[in-house]
């Protein structure tokens, strides 16, 4: 048989496990969906829509729920002649200022590219630079006036704009600025709690008229979400009974994210599929989930590693050595002492302590280390430990620093190699 053929033993439809797949029903979100729907109901009554701020950690269904509800709302609105509902959706990834959001909104109106956007305009797109902010806002207002009716603007991942949040003040205010009969509502979506807390008070008053929190999923909820997907995505009977509970448990313990749980299941199915292709059994087992988790973590470290300098790698290796001896979490002061030894063994000169601190906090930003605040009678101090498995960190480091079996051996002696 050739390398490429259509045979599959495990996976029936891989697209169903992808992130952008829109499930028919959102499991375990009835309460939030009811609450969300209630804030959108005025649209059907022909009233001014509410502004809504939707928040919750990553992967908990904020975007999926919004797409679901807006589609439902649109269908309902079609039944009423006096409701003319127009939706503009923008994912604000890459927009770091209100200015960029405004230009991108104008261009979304003129050349729709997001799934929910239902308007279209014959005007030509604007370039992203070179105008005064006021000019852009005016263009936006006049486009909105042209569209007319009820307009919902969905700003997904709005936290990208940081503290430059003028647009969130301007848009809701545009209601009163527009003379024509336009009813405007803004839906802001964010997974960054700090962003919400740091919104300027005037924005909070307007945008956060209605706030809806999507909490993380627990293991039971994740199991239902995964089962629903697996049923469509995988062939019947290929899942061992403990696969879904294990995927759910891993993700619930870490983030409560459905995205993470789905990624783990997808990877486990992939690993099992590859084995089946080369003559193995057509079955996904607990072992495959563990292997998948290891691969994902390793990938995460490898990706984080791209941004590390050589000394960043030494710092990570230092924490690995400490972890192999069972000495993590460890205080930065002691990590620094150990780091000096590591650097010496690579015949290099150590960085100043301050810079090593920077590397440690960099590594924790990348999810490779975890920062813990600890306190004792002598005050507060920072401690770090690995936030990925020791073996995935060592695998990834080995690509850069050469063989690290000596660290593995120490870990094995201490039964700490996962
Ligand atoms: N309740 C659910 N039922 C079924 N699938 C779900 C549910 N919640 C989330 N998912 C799935 O999990 C994945 C992530 O969901 P979604 O993209 O909506 O997360 P999000 O909250 O918008 O995350 P982010 O903040 O990172 O954008 C999607 O594939 C989505 O279909
Ligand atoms: Mg989202």
Topology:
Elements: H1 30-45, E1 52-55, H2 62-78, E2 85-91, H3 98-110, H4 133-147, E3 149-156, H5 166-177, E4 182-190, H6 193-198, H7 201-207, E5 210-213, H8 219-233, H9 243-254, H10 258-277, H11 286-306, H12 310-324, E6 330-331, H13 332-345, H14 353-365, E7 369-376, E8 379-386, H15 390-401, H16 405-413
Parallel strand pairs: 1-4, 1-5, 2-3, 3-4
Antiparallel strand pairs: 6-8, 7-8
Helix pairs in contact: 1-2, 3-4, 5-7, 8-9, 8-10, 9-10, 10-11, 11-15, 12-13, 12-14, 12-15, 12-16
Magnesium ion binds at residues 62-63, 156.
How would you spell out the order of helices and strands?
A: HEHEHHEHEHHEHHHHHEHHEEHH
Q: Approximately what portion of the residues adopt beta-strand conformation?
A: 5-15%
Number of strands: 8
Query: Which word captures the global form?
Result: globular
Poorly predicted runs are none
Structural class: alpha/beta
* The CATH homologous superfamily of the largest domain: P-loop containing nucleotide triphosphate hydrolases
Give the CATH architecture of the largest domain. 3-Layer(aba) Sandwich
Task: Give the biggest sheet.
Answer: 5 strands, parallel
Helix content: 40-55%
Compounds present? adenosine-5'-triphosphate, magnesium ion
Radius of gyration, taken over Cα atoms and rounded to an integer in Å: 25 Å
Instruction: Write down the CATH class of the largest domain.
Output: Alpha Beta
Going across the major beta sheet, what is the strand order?
2-3-4-1-5
CATH topology of the largest domain: Rossmann fold
Mean pLDDT across every amino acid position:
92
Number of domains: 3
Put simply, the count of helices is 16
Tell me the span between the first and last alpha carbons. Answer: 37 Å
């Amino acid at each position: 048989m050739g390398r490429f053929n259509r045979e599959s033993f495990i996976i029936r439809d891989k697209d169903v496990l992808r992130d952008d797949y829109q499930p028919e029903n959102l499991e375990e979100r009835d309460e939030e969906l009811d609450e969300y729907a209630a804030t959108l109901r005025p649209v059907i009554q022909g009233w001014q829509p509410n502004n809504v701020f939707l928040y919750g950690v990553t992967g908990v269904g904020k975007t999926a729920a919004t797409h679901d509800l807006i589609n439902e709302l649109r269908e309902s609105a079609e039944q009423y002649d006096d409701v003319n509902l127009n939706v503009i959706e923008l994912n604000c990834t890459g927009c770091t200022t209100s200015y960029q959001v405004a230009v991108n909104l104008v261009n979304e109106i003129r050349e729709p590219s997001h799934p929910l956007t239902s308007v279209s305009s014959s005007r030509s797109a604007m370039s992203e630079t070179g105008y005064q902010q006021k000019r852009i806002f005016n263009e936006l207002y006049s486009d909105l006036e042209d569209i007319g009716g009820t307009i919902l603007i969905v700003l997904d991942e709005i936290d990208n704009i940081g503290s430059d949040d003028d647009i969130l003040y301007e848009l809701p205010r545009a209601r009163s600025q527009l003379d024509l009969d336009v009813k405007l509502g803004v839906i802001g979506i964010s997974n960054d709690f700090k962003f919400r807390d740091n919104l300027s008070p005037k924005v909070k008053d307007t945008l956060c008229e209605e706030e809806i929190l999507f909490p993380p999923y627990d293991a039971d909820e994740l199991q239902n979400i995964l089962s629903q997907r697996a049923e469509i995505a995988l062939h019947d009977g290929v899942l061992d009974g403990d696969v879904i509970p294990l995927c759910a448990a891993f993700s619930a313990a870490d983030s409560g994210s459905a995205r993470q749980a789905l990624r783990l299941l997808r990877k486990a199915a992939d690993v099992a599929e590859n084995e089946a292709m080369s003559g193995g059994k057509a079955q996904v087992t607990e072992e495959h989930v563990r292997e998948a988790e290891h691969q994902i973590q390793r990938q995460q470290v490898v990706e984080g590693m791209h941004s590390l300098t050589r000394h960043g790698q030494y710092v990570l290796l230092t924490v690995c050595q400490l972890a192999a001896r069972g000495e993590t979490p460890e205080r930065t002061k002691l990590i620094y002492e150990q780091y000096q030894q590591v650097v010496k063994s690579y015949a290099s000169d150590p960085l100043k302590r301050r810079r090593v601190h920077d590397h440690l906090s960099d590594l924790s930003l990348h999810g490779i280390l975890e920062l813990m605040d600890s306190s004792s009678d002598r005050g507060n101090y920072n401690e770090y430990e690995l936030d990925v498995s020791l073996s995935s960190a060592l695998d990834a480091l080995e690509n850069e620093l050469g063989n690290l079996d000596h660290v593995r051996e120490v870990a094995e002696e201490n039964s700490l190699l996962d």
